[in-house]
Each structure stands twice: as C-alpha cells, then as structure tokens.
Amino acid sequence: MTPAITPSISVVICTWNRGDVLRQTLEQMTLLDVPPGTQWELIVVNNNCSDDTDAVLASFQGRLPLVRLFEATPGKSHAANLAVREAVGEYIVWTDDDVLVDPAWLKAYLAAFAHWPEATIFAGAIDPWFEGRPPSWLEQVFPQVANAYAALDHGPVGFAMTHDTYPYGANMALKRSAHLREPYDTRLGPRPNSGIRGEELVVARRLLASGDTGRWVPEARVRHFIPVKRQTLAYLREYFLGSGEVLGMMAESDPRARLVFGRPLWLWKEALLSEISYRVGRTFRSPDKWIGAFKNANVARGRLKTYAPAGPE
User: Fold this and answer.
1) Buried/exposed code over 55-67 (b: 16+ C-beta within 10 A; e: otherwise)
2) Chain centroid to CA 194: how far?
3) Percent of the chain's residues with pLDDT above 70
4) 100-104, 116-120, 135-139, 193-197: lowest mean pLDDT where?
5) If you ran DSSP here, which 8-state letter would residue 160 be given?
6) Are the beta carbons of 49 and 215 closer than 8 angstroms?
7) pTM: predicted TM-score of the whole model, two decimal places
C-alpha cells in the first residue's frame, strides 16, 4: 500500500504593531506537536509596522520555519493577499498575531485535510483570552457578542459547514487554490481608522455558495487575546457599526423600498427604535436584556452608511 502523502502547509499571520503579543504568539508556536515529515512554513507579514516587530521576528529565526514578508499598503487584506501569492503550501492555515495555538492545533488540521480531501474550508474553536478580569456586564452578555471577539465554538463533534457556520480568521484553513479563486476584498478587514471586519466571512460565503465544502474541526483550538481596551461598549459599537457597513455593501437593494434621504425607511426605523430601546433598557434592565438592541442599532447605522440604492432597470 502506498503511504499517504502529507500535504504541505503554510501557516500565516498578518501583523501590525503588536510586537509584545506577537512574541507570545510565536513562543507558543514553538510548542506545536508537528508530525514527522510535515512540510510547513510560518509566514509572518509585517503590514508596515512601526514598533519592534522586526526584532521580535529576528529572535525566532531558526526556532521556527519562518518566512518574513513585508506589505507596505495598510490593511490586513492587502497583507493576507500577499501571503496567499507567496505561500508554497497546498493548504493555508490562518491565525492572528494575538493568538495562542494549542500544541495539537496543526496536527488536528492535518488529520482533517487527510480525512476530508474534498473539502476546501476548515474551521476550529476559538476561546477568549482576557487581559485581566472582564467587567461584569461583559461576562453577562459575552455569549451574545462573542462574534465581536472572534470567539467560536460549535461543539465537540465535527460536521459539514453551512452558511450559518462560517470560520473566523483567527483559526481557519483553506486550500490555497481556493484563495487564488477568491482573494480577500481589500475594502474589508482591519486597517487604520476603520472598524470594518468580515473579510474572511465574505471569502467563505462566496466559496460555499459556489459549491465548495467545509468542515468544523473541534480539535483545532486556539485562544484569542482580548485586551482591556476592547472590553468596552465603545469597542462593541465600533465593531457592530463595521459589521453593518459590510452588510450594507453586500446587500442587494430592493427597488420597491420607500427611500428617505436615499435609504430605506424601514432601516431608518430599525436604527432609531433599536437605539431608543437600548438607551431605555440600559437604565432599567440587566445588560443581557439591552445588548441585543445595542447590536441592532449599530448594525442598522452601519448599513445606512454603505447602503446603495438600486439603479434603474
């Protein structure tokens, strides 16, 4: 019997001015349990950092199969597309510069690639890694805002992914061939002075819609850092505004909708009524009761910002 050929792997991290946390991320990478004979590289894309990122990377040269790239154009999607072009792996395994991977993380993905060679997209669990103790209101509402922190856990049993079970960029893998068909939209993703996220969700949605398949890989676990500055309503407002902007960009306009200032009347109502519900609820109700209205208000405001009316037929 011919032995199975282990596919080559490119692990990718895009980084911008997080040298202190990146050092912890890379240190954890040195603990990976990589099966003998695995061909893998660790690509780190410096997205025009101005901190000590280069020095951090230099300190891991020789300890990891490090490939250092530089992308001058600000924006994670620009950096990620560069990594896809330069990667040599058949599969690209994505994580972030503020993530601690489980020692069995890469082994779990390799097993999934071997078991489901027809699949294109793979996703693993993401647990929160709080800086300090989170505020009590955030602990109460965390299950309802987990997506704002890229926390993800669909349970201990693997399954075929659907349009309701997208991966997050802190812990996912795709065939490189799929990435070449569906590059990241450079209008989306973290960049200076922008709260728009969701670049990986758009890629996954398009691939699944075109007939590609995906798998949930519960054994591939990571922990995602949540600094104190993100444990605030201000951060959540920015995140959900950005989510709404992405939805507005992707949505198909309804030519029958009644418009007010070029936007659907129903969307104005949703933004206004949800904001009122949030503000009243915050005075009289517990956080888990008003956080839904808070989310809806800001998503609606984001959609209003990027809504494009339907043109004439």
Assistant:
1) ebbeebeeebbbb
2) 15
3) 96
4) 193-197
5) B
6) no
7) 0.90
Q: What is the DSSP string of 145-157?
A: HGGGGT-B---SS
Task: Please state at what angle helix 265-284 crosses helix 287-306, rounded to 10 degrees.
Answer: 150
Residue with tokens 């949703």: 270
Structure tokens at 286: 């517990």
User: What is the helix, strand, coil percentage profile of the chain, to 5?
Assistant: 40, 20, 35
Residue whose tokens read 């020789």: 62
Cα separation, 36 vs 23, in Å, equals 25
Bridge partner residues of 215 (DSSP) = 122, 160
Neighbour count for residue 209 (Cβ, 10 Å):
9
Helix (H) or strand (E) holding 40: strand 40-46
In sequence order, which residues have a C-beta less than 8 Å from that of residue 118 and are 6 or more positions away? 213
What single-letter amino acid sits at 141? Answer: V
Predicted confidence (pLDDT) at residue 156 exceeds the cutoff of 90: yes
CB 161 within 8 A of CB 215: yes
Q: What is the biggest distance separating any 2 CA atoms in the chain, rounded to whole angstroms?
A: 69
Look up residue 64 and give its DSSP letter.
B
Using an 8 Å Cβ cutoff, are 110 and 220 in contact? no
